[in-house]
Protein backbone atom coordinates (compact mmCIF):
# COMPACT_ATOMS: atom_id res chain seq x y z
CA UNK A 1 0.00 0.00 0.00
CA UNK A 2 2.78 2.44 0.94
CA UNK A 3 4.74 1.51 -2.20
CA UNK A 4 1.71 2.25 -4.38
CA UNK A 5 1.19 5.61 -2.68
CA UNK A 6 4.86 6.49 -3.16
CA UNK A 7 4.72 5.52 -6.84
CA UNK A 8 1.57 7.56 -7.33
CA UNK A 9 3.21 10.61 -5.74
CA UNK A 10 6.29 10.23 -7.97
CA UNK A 11 4.09 10.43 -11.06
CA UNK A 12 2.62 13.73 -9.96
CA UNK A 13 3.93 17.16 -10.74
CA UNK A 14 4.35 19.76 -8.04
CA UNK A 15 0.93 20.84 -6.83
CA UNK A 16 -0.60 17.39 -7.17
CA UNK A 17 -1.06 17.44 -10.96
CA UNK A 18 -0.49 14.05 -12.52
CA UNK A 19 2.32 13.88 -15.08
CA UNK A 20 1.35 13.14 -18.67
CA UNK A 21 2.91 10.14 -20.46
CA UNK A 22 5.97 10.88 -22.55
CA UNK A 23 4.23 10.10 -25.86
CA UNK A 24 1.46 12.57 -25.08
CA UNK A 25 3.99 15.27 -24.14
CA UNK A 26 5.93 14.79 -27.37
CA UNK A 27 2.74 14.93 -29.47
CA UNK A 28 1.69 18.15 -27.76
CA UNK A 29 5.14 19.72 -28.17
CA UNK A 30 5.40 18.60 -31.81
CA UNK A 31 1.98 20.05 -32.65
CA UNK A 32 2.80 23.26 -30.81
CA UNK A 33 6.10 23.60 -32.70
CA UNK A 34 4.29 23.14 -36.04
CA UNK A 35 1.74 25.83 -35.14
CA UNK A 36 4.47 28.21 -33.94
CA UNK A 37 6.43 27.77 -37.19
CA UNK A 38 3.32 28.50 -39.25
CA UNK A 39 2.58 31.56 -37.13
CA UNK A 40 6.14 32.85 -37.46
CA UNK A 41 6.10 32.40 -41.24
CA UNK A 42 2.72 34.11 -41.53
CA UNK A 43 3.71 37.27 -39.67
CA UNK A 44 5.59 40.12 -41.30
CA UNK A 45 5.10 43.17 -43.49
CA UNK A 46 2.96 40.94 -45.73
CA UNK A 47 0.50 38.78 -43.78
CA UNK A 48 0.04 35.27 -45.17
CA UNK A 49 -2.79 32.94 -44.17
CA UNK A 50 -2.15 29.51 -42.68
CA UNK A 51 -3.92 27.64 -45.47
CA UNK A 52 -1.83 29.42 -48.11
CA UNK A 53 1.40 28.56 -46.28
CA UNK A 54 0.40 24.91 -45.89
CA UNK A 55 -0.56 24.60 -49.57
CA UNK A 56 2.71 26.19 -50.72
CA UNK A 57 4.76 23.95 -48.41
CA UNK A 58 2.92 20.83 -49.56
CA UNK A 59 3.37 21.81 -53.21
CA UNK A 60 7.07 22.17 -52.50
CA UNK A 61 7.29 18.49 -51.60
CA UNK A 62 6.22 17.50 -55.12
CA UNK A 63 3.62 15.09 -53.72
CA UNK A 64 0.73 17.57 -53.80
CA UNK A 65 -0.52 19.94 -56.50
CA UNK A 66 -2.83 22.59 -55.09
CA UNK A 67 -4.08 25.12 -57.63
CA UNK A 68 -2.23 28.42 -57.32
CA UNK A 69 -4.64 31.16 -56.25
CA UNK A 70 -2.04 33.37 -54.58
CA UNK A 71 0.44 35.92 -55.88
CA UNK A 72 3.69 34.25 -57.05
CA UNK A 73 5.68 36.64 -54.85
CA UNK A 74 4.15 34.93 -51.79
CA UNK A 75 6.11 31.76 -52.59
CA UNK A 76 9.33 33.76 -52.84
CA UNK A 77 8.63 35.41 -49.47
CA UNK A 78 7.97 32.06 -47.80
CA UNK A 79 10.80 30.00 -49.30
CA UNK A 80 13.55 32.59 -49.67
CA UNK A 81 12.87 35.17 -46.95
CA UNK A 82 10.97 33.80 -43.96
CA UNK A 83 11.40 30.02 -43.88
CA UNK A 84 15.24 30.01 -43.59
CA UNK A 85 15.09 32.40 -40.63
CA UNK A 86 12.25 30.58 -38.88
CA UNK A 87 13.85 27.15 -39.29
CA UNK A 88 17.18 28.66 -38.26
CA UNK A 89 15.59 29.89 -35.02
CA UNK A 90 14.08 26.45 -34.38
CA UNK A 91 17.44 24.76 -34.99
CA UNK A 92 19.29 27.17 -32.70
CA UNK A 93 16.71 26.67 -29.93
CA UNK A 94 16.98 22.91 -30.32
CA UNK A 95 20.77 22.98 -30.19
CA UNK A 96 21.08 25.27 -27.19
CA UNK A 97 18.51 23.28 -25.20
CA UNK A 98 20.17 19.94 -26.00
CA UNK A 99 23.62 21.33 -25.18
CA UNK A 100 22.27 22.68 -21.90
CA UNK A 101 20.97 19.25 -20.93
CA UNK A 102 24.29 17.62 -21.84
CA UNK A 103 26.44 20.10 -19.93
CA UNK A 104 24.19 20.04 -16.87
CA UNK A 105 24.22 16.26 -16.91
CA UNK A 106 27.93 15.77 -17.39
CA UNK A 107 28.99 18.56 -15.01
CA UNK A 108 26.21 17.82 -12.49
CA UNK A 109 25.82 21.56 -12.08
CA UNK A 110 22.35 23.17 -12.20
CA UNK A 111 23.93 26.47 -13.33
CA UNK A 112 25.71 24.93 -16.32
CA UNK A 113 24.75 26.28 -19.72
CA UNK A 114 26.15 25.81 -23.25
CA UNK A 115 28.55 28.74 -22.84
CA UNK A 116 30.20 27.61 -19.62
CA UNK A 117 33.38 26.14 -21.13
CA UNK A 118 34.38 29.11 -23.25
CA UNK A 119 32.10 28.63 -26.23
CA UNK A 120 30.69 32.15 -26.05
CA UNK A 121 34.01 33.96 -25.67
CA UNK A 122 35.65 31.85 -28.38
CA UNK A 123 32.78 32.50 -30.77
CA UNK A 124 32.84 36.22 -29.93
CA UNK A 125 36.58 36.43 -30.62
CA UNK A 126 36.10 34.62 -33.93
CA UNK A 127 33.29 37.00 -34.86
CA UNK A 128 35.43 40.01 -33.88
CA UNK A 129 38.22 38.79 -36.18
CA UNK A 130 35.68 38.38 -38.98
CA UNK A 131 34.37 41.91 -38.49
CA UNK A 132 37.81 43.53 -38.74
CA UNK A 133 39.06 41.48 -41.70
CA UNK A 134 38.63 42.97 -45.18
CA UNK A 135 36.96 39.75 -46.38
CA UNK A 136 33.22 39.20 -45.93
CA UNK A 137 32.50 35.72 -47.26
CA UNK A 138 33.99 32.31 -47.93
CA UNK A 139 33.03 30.35 -51.04
CA UNK A 140 31.07 33.24 -52.52
CA UNK A 141 27.84 34.36 -50.91
CA UNK A 142 26.92 30.97 -49.44
CA UNK A 143 29.05 30.98 -46.28
CA UNK A 144 29.60 34.39 -44.64
CA UNK A 145 32.91 34.68 -42.84
CA UNK A 146 31.42 35.61 -39.46
CA UNK A 147 29.61 32.30 -38.74
CA UNK A 148 32.60 30.29 -40.00
CA UNK A 149 35.09 32.01 -37.69
CA UNK A 150 32.59 32.02 -34.81
CA UNK A 151 32.20 28.25 -35.18
CA UNK A 152 35.96 27.71 -35.31
CA UNK A 153 36.56 29.99 -32.34
CA UNK A 154 33.93 28.23 -30.22
CA UNK A 155 35.35 24.77 -30.94
CA UNK A 156 38.97 25.79 -30.33
CA UNK A 157 38.15 27.49 -27.03
CA UNK A 158 36.37 24.41 -25.66
CA UNK A 159 39.24 22.12 -26.61
CA UNK A 160 41.68 24.57 -25.02
CA UNK A 161 39.66 24.51 -21.80
CA UNK A 162 39.46 20.73 -21.80
CA UNK A 163 43.15 20.25 -22.50
CA UNK A 164 44.12 22.67 -19.72
CA UNK A 165 41.83 20.95 -17.22
CA UNK A 166 43.09 17.44 -18.03
CA UNK A 167 45.78 16.12 -15.67
CA UNK A 168 47.11 12.57 -15.33
CA UNK A 169 44.46 11.21 -17.67
CA UNK A 170 41.58 12.70 -15.67
CA UNK A 171 39.46 15.83 -16.03
CA UNK A 172 38.09 16.89 -12.64
CA UNK A 173 34.82 18.79 -12.86
CA UNK A 174 36.02 21.64 -10.62
CA UNK A 175 39.19 22.09 -12.69
CA UNK A 176 37.15 22.06 -15.89
CA UNK A 177 34.83 24.78 -14.59
CA UNK A 178 37.71 26.94 -13.35
CA UNK A 179 39.56 26.58 -16.66
CA UNK A 180 36.38 27.64 -18.44
CA UNK A 181 36.09 30.78 -16.30
CA UNK A 182 39.74 31.72 -16.89
CA UNK A 183 39.68 31.12 -20.65
CA UNK A 184 36.43 33.09 -20.92
CA UNK A 185 38.10 36.07 -19.26
CA UNK A 186 41.25 35.82 -21.39
CA UNK A 187 39.36 35.57 -24.69
CA UNK A 188 37.11 38.50 -23.81
CA UNK A 189 40.25 40.53 -23.07
CA UNK A 190 41.74 39.49 -26.43
CA UNK A 191 38.55 40.54 -28.18
CA UNK A 192 38.60 43.96 -26.51
CA UNK A 193 42.30 44.41 -27.29
CA UNK A 194 41.73 43.53 -30.95
CA UNK A 195 38.96 46.08 -31.37
CA UNK A 196 40.99 48.71 -29.50
CA UNK A 197 44.12 48.31 -31.64
CA UNK A 198 42.37 48.19 -35.01
CA UNK A 199 42.05 51.73 -36.42
CA UNK A 200 38.60 52.93 -37.49
CA UNK A 201 36.91 50.01 -35.72
CA UNK A 202 33.78 51.93 -34.68
CA UNK A 203 31.66 50.12 -37.26
CA UNK A 204 33.16 46.79 -36.22
CA UNK A 205 32.33 47.46 -32.58
CA UNK A 206 28.71 48.29 -33.41
CA UNK A 207 28.36 45.22 -35.63
CA UNK A 208 29.93 43.01 -32.98
CA UNK A 209 27.60 44.44 -30.32
CA UNK A 210 24.60 43.54 -32.49
CA UNK A 211 26.00 40.05 -32.99
CA UNK A 212 26.65 39.58 -29.27
CA UNK A 213 23.07 40.66 -28.50
CA UNK A 214 21.81 37.65 -30.42
CA UNK A 215 19.77 37.33 -33.58
CA UNK A 216 19.03 34.72 -36.22
CA UNK A 217 21.35 35.95 -38.97
CA UNK A 218 20.13 33.64 -41.75
CA UNK A 219 19.28 34.95 -45.21
CA UNK A 220 19.68 31.83 -47.37
CA UNK A 221 19.45 28.05 -47.17
CA UNK A 222 23.08 26.73 -47.15
CA UNK A 223 23.84 27.75 -43.52
CA UNK A 224 20.50 26.29 -42.41
CA UNK A 225 21.27 22.99 -44.15
CA UNK A 226 24.78 22.76 -42.66
CA UNK A 227 23.61 23.63 -39.15
CA UNK A 228 20.61 21.32 -39.53
CA UNK A 229 22.87 18.35 -40.35
CA UNK A 230 25.07 19.06 -37.32
CA UNK A 231 22.00 19.40 -35.07
CA UNK A 232 20.46 16.17 -36.34
CA UNK A 233 23.66 14.23 -35.71
CA UNK A 234 24.03 15.86 -32.32
CA UNK A 235 20.49 15.01 -31.23
CA UNK A 236 20.81 11.39 -32.38
CA UNK A 237 24.13 10.94 -30.59
CA UNK A 238 22.79 12.65 -27.47
CA UNK A 239 19.89 10.21 -27.27
CA UNK A 240 22.38 7.33 -27.40
CA UNK A 241 24.03 8.74 -24.27
CA UNK A 242 20.78 9.16 -22.31
CA UNK A 243 21.50 6.16 -20.08
CA UNK A 244 25.09 7.31 -19.57
CA UNK A 245 23.89 10.71 -18.36
CA UNK A 246 21.51 9.01 -15.92
CA UNK A 247 24.48 7.08 -14.55
CA UNK A 248 26.58 10.24 -14.25
CA UNK A 249 23.87 11.66 -11.97
CA UNK A 250 25.05 9.15 -9.36
CA UNK A 251 28.51 10.74 -9.35
CA UNK A 252 31.71 9.86 -11.18
CA UNK A 253 32.90 7.43 -8.51
CA UNK A 254 29.62 5.51 -8.58
CA UNK A 255 29.64 5.47 -12.38
CA UNK A 256 33.21 4.13 -12.42
CA UNK A 257 32.26 1.51 -9.81
CA UNK A 258 29.50 0.35 -12.17
CA UNK A 259 32.12 -0.21 -14.88
CA UNK A 260 31.55 2.96 -16.89
CA UNK A 261 34.65 4.45 -18.64
CA UNK A 262 34.00 7.87 -17.13
CA UNK A 263 36.71 9.93 -18.83
CA UNK A 264 35.97 8.56 -22.29
CA UNK A 265 32.25 9.32 -22.06
CA UNK A 266 32.90 12.71 -20.49
CA UNK A 267 35.08 13.69 -23.44
CA UNK A 268 32.58 12.39 -26.01
CA UNK A 269 29.66 14.24 -24.42
CA UNK A 270 31.66 17.48 -24.15
CA UNK A 271 32.60 17.18 -27.84
CA UNK A 272 28.99 16.62 -28.90
CA UNK A 273 27.64 19.46 -26.75
CA UNK A 274 30.38 21.81 -27.96
CA UNK A 275 29.77 21.04 -31.64
CA UNK A 276 26.04 21.64 -31.21
CA UNK A 277 26.64 24.92 -29.36
CA UNK A 278 29.19 26.13 -31.89
CA UNK A 279 26.84 25.37 -34.78
CA UNK A 280 24.01 27.24 -33.06
CA UNK A 281 26.14 30.26 -32.17
CA UNK A 282 27.52 30.51 -35.71
CA UNK A 283 24.14 31.63 -37.11
CA UNK A 284 22.60 33.30 -34.06
CA UNK A 285 25.24 35.11 -32.05
CA UNK A 286 25.06 34.76 -28.28
CA UNK A 287 21.50 34.03 -27.14
CA UNK A 288 21.33 33.43 -23.43
CA UNK A 289 18.96 31.59 -21.11
CA UNK A 290 17.69 29.04 -23.66
CA UNK A 291 20.22 26.41 -22.63
CA UNK A 292 19.59 27.12 -18.94
CA UNK A 293 15.83 27.71 -18.69
CA UNK A 294 14.48 25.07 -21.07
CA UNK A 295 16.28 22.02 -19.56
CA UNK A 296 15.29 23.08 -16.04
CA UNK A 297 11.67 23.70 -17.05
CA UNK A 298 11.44 20.29 -18.71
CA UNK A 299 13.16 18.61 -15.77
CA UNK A 300 10.56 20.12 -13.45
CA UNK A 301 7.69 19.08 -15.72
CA UNK A 302 8.68 15.56 -16.81
CA UNK A 303 11.44 14.49 -14.42
CA UNK A 304 15.20 13.93 -14.67
CA UNK A 305 15.33 10.84 -16.93
CA UNK A 306 17.34 11.85 -19.98
CA UNK A 307 15.52 9.49 -22.34
CA UNK A 308 12.53 11.84 -22.05
CA UNK A 309 14.36 15.01 -21.04
CA UNK A 310 16.52 15.27 -24.16
CA UNK A 311 13.77 15.13 -26.85
CA UNK A 312 11.39 17.22 -24.72
CA UNK A 313 14.07 19.89 -24.30
CA UNK A 314 14.85 19.83 -28.02
CA UNK A 315 11.22 20.49 -28.97
CA UNK A 316 10.70 23.05 -26.21
CA UNK A 317 13.89 24.92 -27.11
CA UNK A 318 12.76 25.14 -30.74
CA UNK A 319 9.35 26.47 -29.64
CA UNK A 320 10.81 28.96 -27.19
CA UNK A 321 13.34 30.52 -29.56
CA UNK A 322 10.98 30.53 -32.57
CA UNK A 323 8.44 32.49 -30.53
CA UNK A 324 11.15 34.83 -29.20
CA UNK A 325 12.48 35.46 -32.73
CA UNK A 326 8.95 36.12 -34.01
CA UNK A 327 8.25 38.62 -31.22
CA UNK A 328 11.61 40.31 -31.80
CA UNK A 329 10.60 40.93 -35.41
CA UNK A 330 7.07 42.24 -34.81
CA UNK A 331 7.05 44.10 -31.46
CA UNK A 332 8.79 47.22 -32.81
CA UNK A 333 8.46 46.54 -36.54
CA UNK A 334 10.11 47.54 -38.80
CA UNK A 335 12.90 47.66 -36.17
CA UNK A 336 14.12 44.30 -34.88
CA UNK A 337 14.87 43.70 -31.21
CA UNK A 338 17.86 41.53 -30.22
CA UNK A 339 16.52 38.05 -29.53
CA UNK A 340 18.86 37.66 -26.56
CA UNK A 341 17.09 40.53 -24.80
CA UNK A 342 13.71 38.81 -25.12
CA UNK A 343 14.97 35.40 -24.02
CA UNK A 344 16.43 36.98 -20.88
CA UNK A 345 13.37 39.12 -20.09
CA UNK A 346 10.97 36.20 -20.60
CA UNK A 347 13.16 33.31 -19.55
CA UNK A 348 14.42 34.63 -16.22
CA UNK A 349 11.00 35.39 -14.63
CA UNK A 350 9.55 32.15 -15.98
CA UNK A 351 12.47 30.18 -14.59
CA UNK A 352 12.10 31.84 -11.18
CA UNK A 353 8.35 31.13 -11.23
CA UNK A 354 8.98 27.43 -11.87
CA UNK A 355 11.54 27.21 -9.10
CA UNK A 356 9.29 29.12 -6.70
CA UNK A 357 6.36 26.78 -7.26
CA UNK A 358 8.27 23.53 -7.70
CA UNK A 359 11.35 23.74 -5.48
CA UNK A 360 10.16 21.10 -3.02
CA UNK A 361 9.67 18.55 -5.77
CA UNK A 362 12.76 19.49 -7.79
CA UNK A 363 15.04 16.47 -8.18
CA UNK A 364 18.52 16.68 -9.71
What do these coordinates show?
Helix 2 crosses helix 4, helix 6 packs across helix 7 and helix 6 runs antiparallel to helix 12. The protein starts with a helix and ends in a 6-residue tail after the last helix. It is built from 15 helices and two strands. It is mainly alpha-helical. Strands 1-2 form a two-stranded antiparallel sheet. A hairpin with a 4-residue loop joins strand 1 and strand 2.
Task: Summarize the entry for a quick read.
Helix content is 72%, strand content 1%. The chain is mostly helical and 364 residues long.
The geometry reads as globular
For the largest beta-sheet, the strand count, sense and barrel status come to: 2 strands, antiparallel
N-to-C order of helices and strands: HHHHHEEHHHHHHHHHH
Instruction: Kindly state the number of beta strands.
Output: 2
Structural class: mainly alpha
- Low-pLDDT parts are 1-11, 13-17
Distance between the termini: 27 Å
**Strand line-up in the sheet with most strands:** 1-2
Estimate the helix proportion, in percent. over 70%
The proportion of residues in beta strands is under 5%
Our Rg estimate from Cα atoms comes to 22 Å
Report the total helices: 15
